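Hi, here's the filled form for the chain we discussed.

Project: internal
Contact: R.S.
Residues: 302
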Amino acid sequence: MLFRSDAGTNTVNQWNDLSGNGNNLSQSLGPPFEPQLATNGSGDPVIRFTATNETFMQAASTPSLAITGDMSIIAVVNFATLDGGTNGEIVSKTGASSKNIAAPYDYYVIATNTGARFYRGNGSAFGQVTASQAPSLGTPHILTVTETGNTVSHFLDGAASGTAILNNSFNETSATDAGQPLSIGIRGDAVNRLAGDLSELIIAGSAISSYDVAALGRYLAAQHHLVFVNTTPTNIVISVTGNQITLSWPADHIGWQLQSNSVGLTVTGAWFTVPGSTATDQMTITTDATKTNVFYRMLYQP
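And the returned structure, exactly as it came back:
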């Protein structure tokens, strides 16, 4: 991220694109429409959008933003509120006349009980897919959506959050760009806005795999000092190659301890944590033929 602030203020009038495409976001109207440059609970800089103050930023339409084929959006965002169903806008590119319809995309969260929604459209017709899990308020999250063909996959904090085909019989090949600016913190009709902090935004003209999502999630979590731990018990997946056994678990369970008991499940005092297991989602262990009664379990301790 590269922020440029107004001299003598804590507001942001430019957010530079570091991809090399030159799609810098700016706010030419000045105060009070410039978002705030703030520091979050981890001490990291964020751009803070306030819906009631109508803060937003835009980038001029370019071929690298007018994505009508496969694409991905990754956002590190902390929602302050989702009241009213109009405070969760992340990024949009809408039609010229119908500025509430994607042309070609729109990505936002409606409510605390509704996952993120990804829209594809041509300014009049559209299709959408909603994530199965919603982000909580007051906590930074990594929201990811990726589309290949007509199939849209959502992820929350690196974990899968639903895959479906675009509804309304809308085909990805029907998506068109209306040449309108890309907006963050606002939709084209100025009804949907963002109340919260945006730390990072990545827009790519290609789909990414679930493995890439998990890897990128780990990178962004480290970069922005985020800690995501799913406290719901999970299974351990086992694979064996020769004399090596690989134990793996979901990426959202990183932080759990993999524990071993080389005596027996009834001797609970013999459990110990496998070194390094809390920082990963898999461990490969070389088996010892002399030990025939080895067990493993997962344990989470806040």
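Let me know if anything looks off before we file it.
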